[in-house]
């Protein structure tokens, strides 16, 4: 009985994830193409994508390695881009924290924007789900997206070098990231964080080792957090 | 535009990122479990994506490597269109199409 409902939650996760096919497919393809253009082989590209499994951080590392940034700075910057998954992990813990360790470890690997965004909404609106059902739903949200992401990366890596320069693929990464940033600007605090980050990034652009990226990122985070505190205070005093 | 990536660097980055990314995802769900976390930490983590991604993209938009670092009208306009459509529609795909459309149209028109 429990396994039947768990199974149906897995399929619900698959169905709910369908719109993200349009994001993961092209994004994976693009990573494969850019990785091969940067000089990675198919094996290196696939190892990268399957062990790290974090699109935005992979693009960041690729970009910085091409700019001959010191290895430590590449790692720190790419992991900073991925800090948000730590927040996702924190936010899922109350719902999944009681599952067996191997399931939590597997869920940790699959914690990405899509699986987090879908699962947290599902858990918050369906409080009566059992632990098994929650896990089944979580793995459903990634059951279609993860194989698609791997497959698309492979396709991109295989056809990579045949893409002509007139396609202006150099600008695909900025467009993909900017397209992700727009919908993230949900509150005034998010907008302040982004604006501060942009202006610090411009003024700190000359710094060595791409330090400007980290300084601008930290400044943006602090500005966002500070704005949130101020707005909360104002709300309380009204 | 850029030199080839050194294979040793590449493998250090791949392994480091694989371990580091998993650690970031595992730290709370695996290790913290059901203990509470300080509010100030969560408040800062909330703004990581929205602070780091613009910091990464801004120099690429203003000083593109393809134009040897010269600001380029087509790329600046495409970036603005992507951000604006993404912000207004909350739709990632629509934003990508708006940005790519603007870029190709201006690259064609400005030759």
Explain what you see.
The complex is a heterodimer of chains A (238) and B (111). Chain A has 238 residues and is mostly helical. Chain A has helices at 2-17, 21-37, 42-52, 55-66, 71-81, 83-96, 101-109, 113-125, 131-143, 145-159, 172-184, 188-203, 211-237. Chain A is 79% helix and 0% strand. In chain A, helix 4 (55-66) runs antiparallel to helix 5, helix 6 runs parallel beside helix 8 (113-125) and helix 8 (113-125) packs antiparallel against helix 9 (131-143). Chain A is globular, with a radius of gyration of 20 Å. Chain A starts with a helix and ends with a helix. The mean pLDDT of chain A is 90. With 111 residues, chain B is an all-alpha fold. Chain B has a domain at 36-109.
Q: Counting H and I runs of at least 4 residues, what is the number of helices of chain B?
A: 5
Q: What does the average pLDDT of chain B come to?
A: 88
User: What is the global morphology of chain B?
Assistant: extended
Largest sheet of chain A: none
Helix-and-strand structural type of chain B = mainly alpha
Number of strands of chain A: 0
What is the radius of gyration of chain B?
19 Å
Query: What oligomeric arrangement do these chains adopt?
Result: heterodimer
Question: What general outline of chain A do the C-alpha atoms trace?
Answer: globular
Secondary structure layout:
The complex is a heterodimer of chains A (238) and B (111).
Chain A: H1 2-17, H2 21-37, H3 42-52, H4 55-66, H5 71-81, H6 83-96, H7 101-109, H8 113-125, H9 131-143, H10 145-159, H11 172-184, H12 188-203, H13 211-237
Helix pairs in contact in A: 1-9, 2-4, 2-10, 3-10, 4-5, 5-13, 6-8, 8-9, 12-13
Chain B: H1 7-32, H2 39-45, H3 48-62, H4 73-89, H5 92-109
Please summarize what this structure is:
Chain A: Belongs to the AzlC family. Chain A: The chain crosses the membrane at residues 20-40, 135-155, 167-185, 191-224. The complex is a heterodimer of chains A (238) and B (111). Chain A has 238 residues and is mainly alpha-helical.
